[in-house]
């Protein structure tokens, strides 16, 4: 999403995804090739794999990208896993490098919400006044609304005060109290539950509700309920600008100069993207999310249902709910923050999975998700009879 001429969304460019959709407003299955297995780009003689590499290489040249890490699977078949370009500049990138996860973190909160609802710890349809009594309209907003962007809370990311503070020093970070105050500086967009509008503010508030209901930090909840059960050992929630080695260096020109943005503090997008991960771990998570591995069958069906259809221009075929954008058979995510641009496509019929994270170059356009075109081209290559419509 582009919220000013320079700013990038943290967690997804989800509004961009929504606009692209044509709208107005269990067990553990690991990724079959771990990124640490080496820079496997295209198995010899594999036409699809070679085309995947060629698509990424061409996109990097056309968009002046610095580095890329990627993984592509067709069901249980590994099509291509690897890295292209430099990180840092002058040194080759490797596929085991960490990135800022961005939007794929959001359905993790929804998964925990559904788990806690099923356990009777909290009721996803009860007003959040029980946990955040001082929040405006807390007697009308529910956790379900926060998870599906129907609360009406203004998005703090589009608040000029946030943009000024963020770009003045992107290394400092924000607290939940600061972000909530920025969200509430502007009036709500609509009455709770009556419409749809994506807002990072929803995720900040939802994270606070989950913490208040359980008495545990959100990082601990995600570790216990998502990361550990799925053996996602390369992923963790972070509350500082630190990112462990090896990491794909983020580069951006958002502030008018080409700079290394790897250590921009991700708490500017608290609860909606402040996690580090690898492509292999993202693959593990997306498979688990799509299969409903961490939910009951009933909970998973509810999570994937078009529960927001009819709001704004959302339909039963193209909608956003519980942190995931749906377009026909495809699940879609496009994280972008601080020079890290990503894309996730997952076809629920063929179990085709495309993941890529790229970093910008000196002349890249920071106001568009630079991973989206290459991801869509790869997805179309692998599922030509049912390509993604995002």
UniProtKB/TrEMBL annotation:
Q: Name one Pfam family in it.
A: Beta-lactamase
Q: Which Gene3D superfamilies match?
A: DD-peptidase/beta-lactamase superfamily
User: Which InterPro entries is this protein grouped with?
Assistant: Beta-lactam-related (IPR001466), Beta-lactam/transpept-like (IPR012338), Diverse_Enzym_Activities (IPR050789)
Boundaries of every Beta-lactamase-related domain copy: 54-371
- The protein's superkingdom reads Bacteria
| TM region positions | none
- Give the protein's recorded name: Beta-lactamase-related domain-containing protein
Q: Record the organism.
A: Asanoa iriomotensis
């Amino acid at each position: 999403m582009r919220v000013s001429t320079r700013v990038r969304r943290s967690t997804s460019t989800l509004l961009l995804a929504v606009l692209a959709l044509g709208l107005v407003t269990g067990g553990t299955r690991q990724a079959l090739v771990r990124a640490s297995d080496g820079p496997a780009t295209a198995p010899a003689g594999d036409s699809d794999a070679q085309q995947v590499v060629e698509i990424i290489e061409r996109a990097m040249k056309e968009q002046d990208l610095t580095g890329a890490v990627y993984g592509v699977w067709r069901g249980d078949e590994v099509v291509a896993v690897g890295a292209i370009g430099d990180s840092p500049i002058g040194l080759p990138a490797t596929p085991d490098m960490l990135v800022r996860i961005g939007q794929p973190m959001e359905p993790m909160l929804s998964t925990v919400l559904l788990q806690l609802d099923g356990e009777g710890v909290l009721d996803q349809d009860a007003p959040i006044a029980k946990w955040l009594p001082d929040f405006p309209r807390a007697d009308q907003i529910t956790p379900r609304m926060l998870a599906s962007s129907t609360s009406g809370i203004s998005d703090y990311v589009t608040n000029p005060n946030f943009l000024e503070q963020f770009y003045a020093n992107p290394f400092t970070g924000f607290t939940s109290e600061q972000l909530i105050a920025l969200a509430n500086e502007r009036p709500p967009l609509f009455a709770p539950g009556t419409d749809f509008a994506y807002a990072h503010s929803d995720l900040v508030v939802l994270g606070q509700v989950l913490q208040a209901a359980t008495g545990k930090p959100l990082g601990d909840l995600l570790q216990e309920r998502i990361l550990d059960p799925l053996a996602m050992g390369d992923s963790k929630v972070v509350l500082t600008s630190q990112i462990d080695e090896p990491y794909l260096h983020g580069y951006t020109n958002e502030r008018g100069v080409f700079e290394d943005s790897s250590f921009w503090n991700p708490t500017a997008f608290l609860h909606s993207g402040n996690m580090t991960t690898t492509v292999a771990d993202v693959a593990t998570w997306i498979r688990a999310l799509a299969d409903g591995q961490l939910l009951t069958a009933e909970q998973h069906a509810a999570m994937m249902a078009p529960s927001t259809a009819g709001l704004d221009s959302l339909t039963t075929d193209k909608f956003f709910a519980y942190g995931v954008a749906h377009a026909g058979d495809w699940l879609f995510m496009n994280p972008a923050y601080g020079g890290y641009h990503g894309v996730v496509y997952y076809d629920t019929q063929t179990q085709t999975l495309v993941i890529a994270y790229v970093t910008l170059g000196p002349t890249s356009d920071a106001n568009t998700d630079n991973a989206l075109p290459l991801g869509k081209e790869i997805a179309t290559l692998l599922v030509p009879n049912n390509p993604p419509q995002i």
